[in-house]
Write a structure and sequence with these properties.
This protein has a domain of 40 residues. The chain is rod-shaped and about 65 Å long. The model has no long low-confidence stretch (mean pLDDT 83). The longest helix has 39 residues. Helix content is 62%, strand content 0%. By secondary structure, it is mainly α. 0% of the residues are buried.
């Protein structure tokens, strides 16, 4: 397992919580931050899937 996947995940971005209306710029910035976190999650998932695939292939070769 790659060492960088064993560290704690980064904190999620702060989401604006207010009773007032959000401006388009505020919403866009929030969506951009969430999209960035989702991209990081997807990247980690792909790396984990590859690590599992490689481990399974090595296990099959040893049998």
């Amino acid at each position: 397992m790659p060492p960088h996947l064993l560290v704690a995940p980064p904190p999620l971005p702060k989401v604006q919580r207010t009773n007032e209306d959000m401006t388009g710029a505020q919403a866009l910035a929030s969506f951009g931050e969430i999209y960035g976190v989702a991209g990081g999650i997807r990247s980690t998932l792909i790396t984990l899937q590859n690590a599992v695939r490689i481990a399974a292939e090595k296990n099959e070769e040893q049998q």
